[in-house]
DNA sequence: TCAATAGTGTCTCTGAGACATTATCTG
DNA sequence: CAGATAATGTCTCAGAGACACTATTGA
């Protein structure tokens, strides 16, 4: 790399920060409540508060941020096949006691079924706050992720597919209530999402009351 | 820095990327059209296409991304007193031929008066495209910045204050048409912004026709 | 039959969009 | 006065929100 800048120096003559990625992976717990996947750090070299799955960007090998985020999900909580989205960079110089570490926060939403059997731990996100603090500035990351998810769910019916492939309107409404963090009115909700749904022709039978029709996302 | 990770290594044992900030500073040119501030790079060590004002993050001294963005604006185009906002990270491994450089793109909107007399050059952003290509992936940055600006201007009247402190509704409409990139209907526009404005009590006199009342943002 | 859940008709309110009209200035 | 620009009355349409009613099932 023989390039020099306006002062005649090479890139590597300057001090560089470490760059990490952290992923706020949101999901619903068994009770249908919004939660974020964290991992307990119990090793000899990494103890302390639970943290979001994260890792350092591997510069050798030209890894992208997206690939690093996928690697963190796989290695830290055993989740694969996701498509995390960039949220923002957290750059408080004091955010990591080990040195100057920028964190490129990512966010994704995943169905509960993809979490089961993994090493991830669910931390409920009750009205925007966690039951215990997270490591580094990860509480802040979760707060941003939550706003991102709410914006997306306000704009389209279940964009992440948390309700699964086929669902009744009431099931879909439950997912939206969990993510958006507020109760919704069923008739208003139905009309809001109707355009984005296709009827499957099936019904959800075997319950008390009138069986509900099921839908797919368009 | 004695901290070690789960593999017993220090942070600085890993290869780290260079981190740059680039700022898409949007403004209106003399004709009231949307433009982005670029600078020509004519030095011996940096020739080529015009680029957005940018710089490398200074890790020594614990510089934040925001401070680096402000420094880039001051040193590269002579603009001060702004509040750039983070847009996203561009991380294509091939985006900079000098090596692995992540760019944290920022965006800001500034009144034309703050650009006059600076070393910046205005590149018009005609319906989202530039008249000539920019260095690196800066065309992509501008495209994202434009979307950001349009979203903000769709939500509130002139959030960046491009119209100045006191303006007529038609002047405000001209600013919004330039940023949003479409013609607006005056009566619809007036009602849309009315809530966010306060009447000054003055009128814009000395023109032909009925003098217009002037407003301030609330 | 009743209890429970699903689904819809309809009313109000708000805001965008558009057309046409009225108001007030300069020359 | 004419011409130009400012400002607004009013109509339509669409969507959110809410209430109440009807529909269909199991027990």
Automatic annotation (TrEMBL), chains A, B:
<dbReference type="InterPro" id="IPR015797">
    <property type="entry name" value="NUDIX_hydrolase-like_dom_sf"/>
</dbReference>
<dbReference type="InterPro" id="IPR036388">
    <property type="entry name" value="WH-like_DNA-bd_sf"/>
</dbReference>
<dbReference type="Pfam" id="PF21906">
    <property type="entry name" value="WHD_NrtR"/>
</dbReference>
<feature type="domain" description="NrtR DNA-binding winged helix">
    <location>
        <begin position="165"/>
        <end position="216"/>
    </location>
</feature>
<protein>
    <submittedName>
        <fullName>NUDIX domain-containing protein</fullName>
    </submittedName>
</protein>
<dbReference type="InterPro" id="IPR054105">
    <property type="entry name" value="WHD_NrtR"/>
</dbReference>
<dbReference type="InterPro" id="IPR036390">
    <property type="entry name" value="WH_DNA-bd_sf"/>
</dbReference>
């Amino acid at each position: 790399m023989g390039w020099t800048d306006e002062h005649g120096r090479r890139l590597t003559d300057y001090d560089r920060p470490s760059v990490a990625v952290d992923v706020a992976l949101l999901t619903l717990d068994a009770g249908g409540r919004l939660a974020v996947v964290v991992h307990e750090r119990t090793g000899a070299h990494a103890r302390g508060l639970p943290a979001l799955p994260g890792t350092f960007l591997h510069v050798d090998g030209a890894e992208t941020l997206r690939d690093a985020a996928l690697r963190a999900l796989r290695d830290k909580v055993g989740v694969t096949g996701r498509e995390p989205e960039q949220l923002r960079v957290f750059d408080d110089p004091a955010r990591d006691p080990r040195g100057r570490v920028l964190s490129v926060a990512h966010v994704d939403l995943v169905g509960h079924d993809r979490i089961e059997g993994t090493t991830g731990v669910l931390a409920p996100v009750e009205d925007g706050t966690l039951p215990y603090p997270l490591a580094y500035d990860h509480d802040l990351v979760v707060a941003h992720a939550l706003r991102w998810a709410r914006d997306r769910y306000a704009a389209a019916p279940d964009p992440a597919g948390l309700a699964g492939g086929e669902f009744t309107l009431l099931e879909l409404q439950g997912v939206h209530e969990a993510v958006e963090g507020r109760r919704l009115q069923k008739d208003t909700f139905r009309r809001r999402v109707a355009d984005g749904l296709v009827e499957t022709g099936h019904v959800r039978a075997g319950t008390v009351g009138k069986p509900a029709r099921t839908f797919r996302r368009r």
